[in-house]
From TrEMBL:
The gene is Gpat3_1. Pathway: Glycerolipid metabolism; triacylglycerol biosynthesis; Phospholipid metabolism; CDP-diacylglycerol biosynthesis; CDP-diacylglycerol from sn-glycerol 3-phosphate: step 1/3; Lipid metabolism. Residues 1-70 form the Phospholipid/glycerol acyltransferase domain. It is a multi-pass membrane protein. The lineage of its organism: Eukaryota, Metazoa, Chordata, Craniata, Vertebrata. This is GPAT3 acyltransferase. GO terms for cellular component: endoplasmic reticulum membrane.
Length: 165
């Protein structure tokens, strides 16, 4: 990691977030440096959907070079469902699979348009990635698989459901 200029931070620390944003802005301003690779979903899911992107990746400005990645599970499944398998079982299954095949599509560069905010830009990038990979777009955070759903989120969905009825 020291040889490739990683930017490490603790997501829960607000001071770290500001420091990371500053480091990323300095990095992209220096044209001699290589582009930064960011996984804005923040987690891996089951290869069927693209979940909400963390907006911080899109707040720093610059050009986004989207990449769609989708595993082909015909020879071996790279996805780890931690509710079904222990880490040891997952590693054993991964190491004994025939192959781990991954389709990667490098998509055209994208820039935030003047009329869109950061979230709209992130959603536009996410939609392009999902369309290329043949995946559905989900509006919620991938971190929900490890956390309790906020009451406010439940209430919002309940209100929407009541309006439908």
């Amino acid at each position: 990691m020291q040889t490739s200029q990683h930017v490490l931070f603790e997501r829960s620390e607000m001071k770290d977030r500001h420091l990371v944003r500053k480091k990323i802005q300095e990095h992209i301003a220096d044209k001699a440096k290589l582009p930064i690779l960011i996984f804005p979903e923040g987690t891996c899911i089951n290869n069927t959907s693209v979940m909400m992107f963390k907006k911080g990746s899109f707040e720093v400005g610059g050009t986004i070079h989207p990449v769609a990645i989708k595993y082909d599970s015909r020879f071996g499944d790279a996805f780890w469902d931690s509710t079904k398998y222990s880490m040891l079982t997952y590693i054993f299954n991964l190491l004994t699979s025939w192959a781990v095949v991954c389709n990667v599509w490098y998509l055209p560069p994208m820039v935030k348009e003047e009329e869109e905010d950061t979230v709209q830009f992130a959603n536009r990038v996410k939609a392009v990635i999902a369309a290329q990979g043949g995946m559905s777009v989900l509006p919620w955070d991938g971190g929900l698989k490890r956390k309790k759903v906020k009451e406010s989120f439940k209430e919002e969905q309940q209100k929407k459901y009541c309006q439908i009825l």
